[in-house]
Each structure stands twice: as C-alpha cells, then as structure tokens.
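Methods — Computational structure assignment.
A single polypeptide chain was analysed. Its primary sequence is given first, followed by the predicted tertiary structure written as structure tokens.
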Amino acid sequence: MYNIKQAAARTGLTVPVLRAWERRYGIVSPARTPSGYRVYDDEAIARVQTMRRLVDSGWAPSTAAAAILAGTAPAEPIPMPGPADAGEQAAPSENDAFVEAAGNLDSDGVEALLDEMFARGSFERVADESLMPAVVALGDAWADGRIDVAAEHLASHAVFRRLAAAYQAAGRPSFDPGGVIVGLPPGSRHELGALAFAVAVRRAGLRVLYLGSDLPIDDWVATAERVAARAAVIGSVTPADRGPARRVAIALREALPAIVVAFGGKHPPERLPTSDGGGADAAGSTWIRLPERIDDAVRTLAAKLGPTPTA
C-alpha cells in the first residue's frame, strides 16, 4: 500500500493532479487509514498509470477515464480516434488540476499547484509553459460553465498575487523617466498576461510602469507624458479589445509622435493605425505586434528601443 505522495511518485503525477483525477473522474477510490489519509494499492496505481499514458497520447481525460472504468482501455497508448468529447479537448493534466482546484474553491490546492509551477525554472519559462496555459484553461472553464465566477476569481487572484510579488522582486523604481508603460485599454480586465509581461520586462532591466486594467485613454496619454515613456505596450486580449486598443494607440501617437506602441495579446488590432487613423504604417517604425511568448516579446521590444538611456 502507498500513501498519496508515494502514489504520485509512482505514477509521475503531482499530488493535486492525482486528487483531481480521483474526484473528477473516479478512476480510483483509495482506502483510508484510521487517521483519514488515502492509501493506494497496486491496482489503483496501475489504473492511474494507464490514464496518464492515454492522456499523454492525446486522449481527453474524461474519455480515458470512461475507457478505464469500462475495461476497454488499450494496453498500449494509441492516439484517440475521432474528436474528443463534445465541448472538451485534450489538455495538460496540470491544467485540469488547476481548474478542478478552483472549481472546488480549494485555495490550498491552487496555491500548491502555483508553488510547483514557479519551482520549475525561470520566470519566463514558467509563465509561457505553465502559468499562462493554466490561466487560459481557467477562463475556458468559466466560459463553458464548468466553474462559477467565485471559482475563477479565487484562482485568478492567487495568480495575480504571485505576479505582483514577482514584479516587486524584479527591482527597478517604476517612475524612472524614459521607460515602458504597460496596461490594458478601456473596458479590458484580463490583465494577468500584461502583468506577467511587465514582470519579464522589469527582469530584463528595462524601466517599466505597470498601469493595470481598464485604463481610460486620457490616463494613458497623461501617464506617458508624465514619465516621458519611450514605449507603451497595450494588451489586446479579446476581440472586443481591438477597437479600444487602437484608439489608445492613436491618442498616444498624436500626443507623443516618437513613442513606440506595441500590442500584446491574442487579438491585436487587425490594421495598425497611422497618425491620421488610417491603415498600416508603411514604415513600420513605431507600431509593433509582440510575439506570443513572453521572452520573445521582451527581446523584440528591447531591440526596438535600443540602449536604455541613463537616468
């Protein structure tokens, strides 16, 4: 018999993922010690190992679990034939666990998963490969009704706290002149990606001021003028952000013609504005779309700005 940490080690999963698979899919029903701790036998370990192999080969978790419970799971992993369950796509098991912990209002589980993510390597790697995919999975789960608003807020605020701490730990005073301002346009509140980018910019040694979500256009301009910003990074996360992001960019360009304006997020304006609000900037000298990966985006912005002026 194995305790939950031993079972997780034998199956190659984390403890939160093992718990999530037990609760959500019912593939194992571990016995309990008199003190209430889970214990797993060899059959339970084998079931979890089978599910992991199937999920790693592309099966949706619920489909893999159903096959295991029905006794029809293949002995060797094969790609899942046909589409996954309606409304579900195969996803990294860690994302499932993160959503599951949020849905159960399990703040300890959410924090444990975040601890594991941030222990894996550099901030940029963690953000690109673990943290932001988990945030996307969380948003998808809220959008399709698998979790409620309270659950989404619980997990999102846990992520925000980690990012805010990382921003503070990265160092430079925010109001140094000649730096980069980062934020979201009016009406946009999906700020975790923008804050993660601001952390990475600060870690790269650039001067940065993070302005947050839902920032009015007049405040974008006033802040850029006040801190003599060399660049403004506007997050455009959803299709609805495109228009407001474009209007922010035009206002910044009118007030500060030399400012570099960069768009981050999956839905930048479809046409980059010129100073007169027209089509794409033929010269391409002041408008840039940042790459999706955070480290690539930081390098792109740094290359555009050139050497940082001394204070």
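Note: Residues 81-91, 275-285 have pLDDT under 50 and may be disordered.
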